[in-house]
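User: Teach me something about this protein's shape.
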Amino acid sequence: MTLGDSGFMDRRIDTYLKPLVNEDRFLFFEEVARYADETIAPRILEWERAHELIPDDAIKSMADMGLFGITIEDHFGGQGGQHTDLVLMGLALGYHSHSVAITPGAATSLGSKPLMMCGSDAQKEAHLAALARGERMFVFGLSEPGRGSDAANPEVVATRDGEGWIIRGEKCWSTNAKWASHVVVHALTEPGGRHAHRSTCFIVPMDAEGVSYNEMGGKKVWEQSSTGSIGFDGVRVDDDMILGELNEGFKVMVTTLNGGRLFIAGLALSSLAFALDKTRHFAQERIQFADKPIGRFQRVQDVLVDMDIALEQGLTWLMELCRQYDQGTLAREQAAKVKIECSRVASHLLVEAMEVCGGVACLDEFGMIRHHDDLFVTRVGEGSNRALKTQVASPLVPDIRRLLD
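Assistant: First, the predicted structure itself:
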């Protein structure tokens, strides 16, 4: 096995990333990858077998590295980076664990990012510095027990009460709920309003009266990531807690999800990158039939080549879309496309890779079964692939676009 300086496998992904980003960004990717090799990878199996969430000391170590403030302006103590930098962090951490990658990833792309894009000056001053330090964490309150893809029509309701609002209902599948200080709640505020103009987002403290949280039990994917159900039993909020504009909450959510879908596509590619490295080294080490490595068989080589092509294609496409996102020119259909394609191709090829490796691929210490399970989330998270295809089809079939609008 060829090992890098850290003692871990040399990464094929480095070959493709290096020419796609500038030197500073590649050095940042390498720094986070080294951190993941040395600090996270040796502990993952222990957390998995104990069925533990990521421990507080690991979250603190990521905060100390500045990973929760990557895209927050340096004025607020952040790193002043762009979404490309956030996706690079996801690629580096996700190579070993989606659960680890999504913790600062969701805290940024789904937490601090909507505040940065839509928050008032007062809201930014109140929260961004603490978010950048990892002392606070915002959770994205979108999915509900009765609402998934139909996100424009939340069942959580905010009713006007004097000069404030009363929120009732429940959110679920909320990533980072255990560690969250606040939840951005997407709530129905104008039931009779036109489509996509009837909801509002509110920034609600998790310790507010009437807010409750329960970790969702029985989850077999992203097991070290906190996924919670958050209830709102007559929670009172004021107008100054509105994020963005009144009755424009869906706009906040859609704008946020574009960036999140790029991050999820990156996680899918990080799994593909891990599987490619494990399989190509295994194919050289596994001796069978006349004492020769199985890598000499064309059918094994076919799998490796398919994975290598998919990784190069996916990274090239993803980095280009990240550039467009940072410039403000990314169409939402493009974010949906890359998320759909990277997640489905990585899922398919990882199964092929596991078949090449055989029974050892089922062992937790080998690492591939973790990625096999976690890739399911990339197909349904940040919008189910099946639902997103309607969005992707809208520019192709004008009648669908009119119905959506």
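Now, about its shape. The radius of gyration is 21 Å. The chain is about 50% helix and 15% strand. If you'd like, I can walk through any region in more detail.
User: That's plenty for now, thanks!
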